[in-house]
Every structure is written in C-alpha cells, then in structure tokens.
Amino acid sequence: MTSTTEQFADVAATTLLRFATAGSVDDGKSTLVGRLLHDSKSVLTDQLEAVEAASLKRGQEAPDLALLTDGLRAEREQGITIDVAYRYFATPRRRFILADTPGHVQYTRNMVTGASTAELAVVLVDARNGVVEQTRRHAAVAALLRVPHVVLAVNKMDLVDYREPVFAAIAEEFTTYASELGVPGWGSGGNPQENWCTAIPISALAGDNVVEPSANMDWYGGPTVLEHLETVPVSHDLTACHARFPVQYVIRPQTAEHPDYRGYAGQIAAGAFRVGEKITVLPSGKTSTITGIDALGESVDIAWAPQSVTIRLADDIDISRGDLLAPSGDAPATTQDIEATVCHVADQSLAVGQRVLLKHTTRTVKAIVKEIPSRLTLDDLSQHPNPGQLVANDIGRVVVRTAEPLALDAYADSRRTGSFLLIDPADGTTLAAGMAGESFATTKTVAVVEDEEGWDF
Question: Could you write out the DSSP letters of every residue in 130-163?
Fold first, then answer.
C-alpha cells in the first residue's frame, strides 16, 4: 500500500508543462515556436501547406515558420506578434501548453497574461544586439510573476558565426541583471533543479539547438531547447502547500434520493483536503469538519490541487460562492487593506480614489484605490514615488481598501490565492492584475527616484 507522500509524488510528477516565450521585437520568438512545432512533428500537413502558400505569396522561397503562430492579419502584415497565441503540442516525454507573447513594449501587458500561469519562460535575445531594454523588462516580469524557470535563448547565432564569446558575454550580462532581481542561481546547461535560468545558444531559423543539437557549436555541451523543456522539473511538493478551497457553487439536490445533501463544489487551489479534517470557513471564521469528499461521482478520502471536487461538512453553516475553506490550523488572515504590486493592463488609467471591483478566486467585492505609493521602472528597477495613477503596461505598488474582508495569501506563497484582478465596475473591463505582498523573490532595496520614501521592491 502506497503512502500519502508517495501518492503526492505520483501526482506532482505531471507530464504537462506550461511555458511562455518572450523577448524584444524581431528576436525570433515566433520562428522559434514554429521551429519547435515543425521539428517535433507537431504540425499538421494542411497547416504546413497553408504556411508554405502564404510564404510564397510574400516572395519567400522557404516556409516562414513564424506564420504558424502569427495568425492575425495585422501580425502577418507587420511581421510582429500582437496577441498571445496559445499552442498545444506533445512529445513522447511531455505535453506542452505554449503561450507565444508579443515583444513590443506596448504589449508588455500581453506578456504578463501569458506568463501568469507559466512554469517556464523562454526569453529570446538577438545575438547581434545582446541584452536590450525589453529583455530586462521581460526578465523582471518573469521574476515578478515568480515563474519558476527561465531559459535564455541566445538566438541568431548563425549571424555571429556561432562564436562562443558572443554567447558568453550575453549570458554574463543577463546573469548580472538576474542577480539584481534576487532570483536563484544561474546555469548554462547546468542542473535546472538548482538554477532559475539556463542559457542555450540557438538559431531558430536554421534549427540549431532547438530540437536537434547543432553541429556548428561543438563548444556547447548543454541541452537543446526541447530537451530542456522535456526534462525541466515542474513538480511541486503538494503536501507542503497551504490548502485552499474557494467555493464556487453550493449543491442542494433536494431530491427523494438525496433529500439532505449539501455539498460545496469548486476546484482545490492548493494543497490537499482529507475526510475528518477540521476546517475554517473564511471570511466568517466558522469551523466544521469534513465528512465527505466527492470526486467524479465517487467518494474519496483525500483530494488535492487542482482537482475539482465537492466537499461535505458536518455542520449546516452559511457558506456561499466566494467563501474559502482552509485547514483550521493553517487558515490565512482576513483583511480589508491589501498592499500589492499590480500590472496595469487596460488602456484607461488607474488613479488614487478610483472605485473598482476586486476579484479574488471566486469572490468579487467592491473596493477603492487608497494609494499608489510608487511606479516601478523595470529597466533599472528604480521607483518613482506617488505617480498618482498607472497607465497601460505600468507596474506599481497599490494600497486597496475592500468593502468586505478577504482571505489572501502572499503571492510568494501561492500564485493562485495570492493574485487578484481589479475590474472597472462600469463595464467589466479588467484594469490590473495584482500580486499581494512583496514583489520580487527577495525584499531587496533598489534605487528610489526623487524620494527616499516608498516601497522596497
């Protein structure tokens, strides 16, 4: 009979990897994605024929693999990525959900969307240009969103004659910036379990080190991009997570077969729940004991994230959509004053005093923006205190007061229950994506512009 730890280990060793691509304009993100899909035999014949026809129409002799992801007419006309393109493919070793994100500075918010659920980010750099402003911006966003792994793909090595010193210099510069972000160690083809970043020299156009090892860079002994994607560890110790269950729906059949059935349905956000466990309902603070867990029509003794289940309790207490169930010994504190970092994603600005809706898991409450203490400049990690408002693509610190208590975790502890959205109550537009608590992996102090006061990022 397997132990609970062994059961968790089996579940944690998932074969699915969510990853996002990022980088500056024309660094070759879409070409890399197209090369991955093409060389891993994940492109259907009719798709490839359509790309070949479109490429010939544009006067190109060889198929432009970037067209496999750049599907919008404006994207193909301008040769850039505008929206986030999601692609699904698989190899014998792992399944993948890929988010190809835009590189232009005005679409930084789209990169935030694509990377918010990613377990790995591929940041591309043009070997001719090295680390540029947008490279630093995307690295900072990946660190801010606490993406567990980053691949620095130094692209277009064929245009610099596959020279190792060019690759080494870019890797070193990125290393320095990554250390300023407070992220874990660095490695070039090293053990990915010990490093946040792994550097790989590639040519997406020629296919060097994308799926097959390059014959032109015998000085590089690390994995190809696909090998790294297939082997990078994405498992998490679910037994160590703070167990959280946002209630989505209350089930009351009231039928002859189930006259007294009362269950609370939803998806487990983190951790695990067991029959017999004492839980606390938030924000009310009432307690009860789990008497049953139903999953896929069957009763089970234990359930874990991200399973969708129905939980039954010993007591008939007032629970509705938006409430949060947590173990009584590990329940988060409730608060109406939320300090967080937000990425502003709307065209309209977010200003001090503005009334908004705050959506956290399945709960939506009224709120007001009390303060915007600072705006972060990702290029040099400097703070601009008291900007008064945030506009599209800005990242800043905010203080929000909610009309009702919320049970938030720090984003550092849980990307799921530490995140929230700010919404315009007038038309439902998403204004900003928020991350409660500190910003980067460490609470390091960076330069403050014009004022010594404010928030430490």
Answer: -S-HHHHHHHHHHHHTT-SEEEEEEE-GGGGTT-
Q: Residue 23: what residue type?
A: G
Here the contacts of 274-280 (C-beta below 8 Å, separation 24 or greater) are 274/301, 274/302, 275/300, 275/301, 275/302, 277/327, 278/327, 278/328, 278/329, 279/313, 279/325, 279/326, 279/327, 279/328, 280/325, 280/326, 280/327, 280/328, 280/331
Tokens of 132: 């540029």
Q: Report whether 302 contacts 239 (CB < 8 A).
A: no
pLDDT, tens digit, 9 for 90 and up, residues 282-296: 999 999 999 999 999
Q: Are 332 and 408 in contact (CB under 8 A)?
A: yes
Least confident of 103-112, 134-143, 164-173, 322-331: 103-112
Beta strands in 183-254 (DSSP E): 186-187, 197-201, 245-246, 249-251
Encoded tokens for 423: 């919404």
Tokens representing 254 are 């009231």
The residues, ordered by sequence, that sit 6+ positions from 138 with a Cβ below 8 Å of its Cβ are: 22, 23, 108, 111, 121, 123
Q: How far apart are CA 129 and CA 145, in angstroms?
A: 26
Residue 331 CA: distances (Å) to CA of 343, 407, 420 = 27, 9, 18
Question: Which of 363, 434, 428, 365 has the alpha carbon at shortest distance from 397?
Answer: 434
Q: Which two tokens stand for residue 90?
A: 């698989």
Q: pTM, whole model, 2 decimals?
A: 0.80
Which residue, 288, 289, 294, 327, is CA-closest to 311? 294
CB 313 within 8 A of CB 289: yes
**Mutual angle of helices 108-115 and 133-144, in 10-degree steps:** 40
Q: Is 88 exposed, middle or buried (0-12, 13-18, 19+ CB in 10 A)?
A: exposed
Residues in the chain, overall count: 457
In contact, 150 and 123? CB cutoff 8 Å: yes
Strand 286-295, strand 278-282: pairing: antiparallel
User: How many CB atoms neighbour CB 217 within 10 A?
Assistant: 20
Q: Could you tell me the two tokens for 228?
A: 């790294």
- Write the CA distances from 429 to 351, 420, 432, 436, integer angstroms: 15, 14, 9, 21
* Of 289-298, 352-361, 384-393, 446-455, the least confident: 446-455
SS3 266: strand
Q: How confident is the model at residue 14 (pLDDT cuts 50, 70, 90)?
A: very low
Q: Is the dihedral of CA 442, 445, 451, 452 positive or negative?
A: positive
Give 315's strand partners.
none
Which one-letter amino acid corresponds to residue 422? Answer: L
